[in-house]
Amino acid sequence: MLADKHILLIVGGGIAAFKSLDLVRRLREQGAQITPVLTKAGSEFVTPLSLSALSASRIYQDLFDLTDEAEMGHIELSRAADLIVVAPATADLMAKMVGGHANDLASTLLLATDKRVLIAPSMNVRMWDHPATRRNLATLKDDGALVVGPNEGDMACGEYGPGRMAEVPEIMTAIDAALSYGPLKGRQVLGTSGPTHEPIDPVRYIANRSSGAQGTAIAKALMSLGAEVTFVTGPSDVPAPAGAKVMPVQTAKEMLAAVQGAGPMDAAVFAAAVADWHVANAGDSKIKKDGSGLPQLEFAENPDILATVAQMAKGRPELVIGFAAETDDVVAHAKAKRARKGCDWIVANDVSPQTGIMGGTENAITLISDKGAEAWPRMHKDAVATKLAQRIAEYLA
User: For the domain with range 188-396, which CATH number is right: 3.30.479.10, 3.30.2350.10, 1.25.40.10, 3.40.50.10300?
Assistant: First the structure.
């Protein structure tokens, strides 16, 4: 299954490092080539000899190995692999990744790579729950890192809670998905995200409070299941997902053109908060406040991107998903929107100011389909994205 795949495995310092030996064995059984990098702290838990024997490869430990560095060895190592796996990913390693440190071989490889990175966090429950670690985790996800675990359970320190490194079969599944062996392998999925900006003049525009966080999280979750994602995004507060085909746009008209030019898709997820109107008489120069009265803005409707795709006579995606951001009668409005637009699913949520959802880190949705309305509990937007991506995979299976 993993034949001819090259994985660079970074083993951090922690009691969970012993699991890396089993991980190497299982990866080799599936035909993967493993290049191990053992941190100084990691060598306190597993020996270089055992890691080398199981991987059938030389172990890399020192950044300043003169033989390798004469040929820029750390750059070559960081880019020759198909995937970099950090297991265990300690709190220290995660902090180094976020800070862009390069003071040892492991952190230098992680900074220099242009490949996807999968981390398996492992640490004490208090360290995992610490605000600094939570911030670091959020940043790593925004930067495109894939994450598996941690699990909840007994700790080597005697405490109980989240922080145990994911079990080896879980890490293997995550590696398969990262290398496009997931259930959406070979599937083409279109995703839209962010707000649109409709110009009033060259310096002013009409927009909304969408951050783009939910649409970005959905794109990442789809890619983690093997999908090839085309990501059409308006001006967003979060970075576009690494690995997607990114098509940045500003206006609704530009977004429609990008969607129509993206090519055939198996599924389309329209998470963007597209402005309903644009200014028909937008100024070519900045409108001045000169005492002559208020500017007279003329509004015109924007194209309906969701309806356009959902009602295509030819080339319609097998699954078309729209979003309904409502402030009242959420389910009723969403059901009506689904019928009116002709899409398969509607992801509805309450974006009233008191919910903190629009622009926030959490979401509470109701999934509207031909089976009715299914309310999901409030959860982090990443969790919503993961659950939705899994549903999409099940639908397309």
Answer: 3.40.50.10300
Instruction: Encode pLDDT of 53-80 as tens digits.
Output: 998 888 888 876 645 544 446 667 777 7
**Using CB atoms within 10 A of its CB, is residue 280 exposed (0-12), middle (13-18) or buried (19+)?**
exposed
Rg over CA atoms, the chain:
24
Give 192's strand partners: 232, 270
Alpha carbon 130 to chain centroid distance?
Answer: 22
Residue 359: which residues within 8 A CB-CB, separation 6 or more?
A: 209, 210, 211, 213, 237
Q: Residue 237: pLDDT band by 50, 70, 90 thresholds?
A: confident
What's the CA dihedral at 112, 19, 60, 141 to 10 degrees? Answer: 0
Which homologous superfamily is 6-178 in? Flavin prenyltransferase-like (3.40.50.1950)
Ranges of each domain in the chain = 6-178, 188-396
- Give the tens place of pLDDT for each residue, 211-229: 899 999 999 889 878 899 9
In the chain, where does DSSP find H-type helix? 18-29, 48-55, 66-69, 73-80, 91-99, 105-112, 125-129, 131-142, 168-178, 213-224, 252-260, 305-310, 330-341, 381-396
Sequence-distant (6+) residues with CB within 8 A of 97 are 107, 110, 111, 117, 119, 136, 140, 145
Give the integer Cα–Cα distance in Å for 111 and 96.
Answer: 9
Other Cβ atoms closer than 10 A to 238: 18
To which H or E segment does residue 9 belong?
strand 6-11
Q: What is the mean pLDDT of residues 154-166?
A: 75
Q: In this structure, what token pair is assigned to residue 359?
A: 């622009």
Dihedral angle, C-alpha 321, 325, 329, 330, nearest 10 °: 40
Has 343 been annotated as catalytic?
A: no
How far apart CA 366 and CA 368 sit, in angstroms, is: 6
* Catalytic residue of the set 156, 157, 280, 339: 157
Question: Hey, do 6-178 and 188-396 end up sharing a CATH topology, with the first three levels equal?
Answer: yes
The helix/strand/coil state of 281 is coil
Torsion of the alpha carbons at 356, 197, 234 and 189, rounded to the nearest 10: 90
pTM flag (> 0.85):
no
Going by DSSP bridges, is the β-strand pair 365-369/319-326 parallel, antiparallel, or unpaired?
Answer: unpaired
